[in-house]
Amino acid sequence: MKIEHVALYVNDLEAARDFFVTYLGGRSNDGYHNANTGFRSYFIRFEDGARLELMQKPDMADAEKPLNRTGYAHIAFSVGSRARVDALTAQLKAAGYAVVSGPRTTGDGYYESCVVAVEGNPIEITV
User: What are phi and psi of 82, to 5 degrees?
Assistant: First the structure.
């Protein structure tokens, strides 16, 4: 069994798609729109076949997203090397995204950083 995809509701569908395509190498489909409900979505496919569905619909609640909460914690992307973790973290910081940890080696041996992006949702960058 494998996870088929992970889905994330966002307010700004185009900006979310652009983030994952620009910074994390995703490839987007042309999108889907249900004219009856106003629901829109994009599937973003990554190099290894993993997929992320970005979704938006009218009148969504947008609750505060503190970093320490139950539920979704982060999406982790492996970029292949410590140098790439460092470079992408610096690129995202320069683009105005908040780096909340790292790059660093964690107590369990991961080399990673964590950036708050895409409407307050944490993105982990690891080797």
Answer: -60, -40
